[in-house]
Description:
It contains seven helices and seven strands. It is of the alpha+beta class and 214 residues long. The protein folds into two domains: 1-45, no CATH class; 46-213. Helix 2 (86-95) packs antiparallel against helix 3 and helix 4 runs antiparallel to helix 7. The protein binds zinc ion.
Amino acid sequence: MKxxxxxxxxxxxxxxxxxxxxxxxxxxDGTKACCSECGAILYRYxxxxxxxxxxxxxxxxxxxxxxxxxxxxQIEILGHEQFITIPKTIxxxxxxxxxIVGLICIFLIFIFPLMIFTINILLFILLKMxxxxxxxxxxxxxxxxxxxxxxxxxFLISILVALVKLIGYAQIHMGVSFWALIVFVLxxxxxxxxLNLSELxxxxxxxxxxxxxx
Length: 214
Ligand SMILES: [Zn+2]
């Protein structure tokens, strides 16, 4: 295969499992293209993906806000009650003078997840409207830098571990935010798995290709 220029690379797709290079061909709505060597899924075509992605991103955003507004857990030790919220957890790190840890936590469990969902919402709206081709490219590049740093799933697991350790010493009641955080993490995992970056680049390519044809 001879590559004439850089644009020709846009039509090639690499298999993530066996790294075989394939030429991207148009497929029917609702179907998927698989690797000829190992059978792994290369890409799918779902004409409703932008709408689904937008709906999921907005839902995830709402649950993220809910997770930050209400108490995560209510802990009762020897008649002493305490509500724990996500912002309170971060502030208590600063109060205990763990400034660097606090700062890292703000980015990993608050700023980056918030940015990812805001960028996703904006991106899907722009793709739906088929506008601002250059901005969507910049948003996707930004997204690729932030995604590896979103760690709400790890945060949720660490809360669960802490709660398991507290059982026996204290009475624990789950708050609204705890359930909101679980829903948010599930949506986050689903979006990362189903709408990964290569899928988003392809969505963008298709959205603007149909626009160019018109
Ligand atoms: Zn393969």
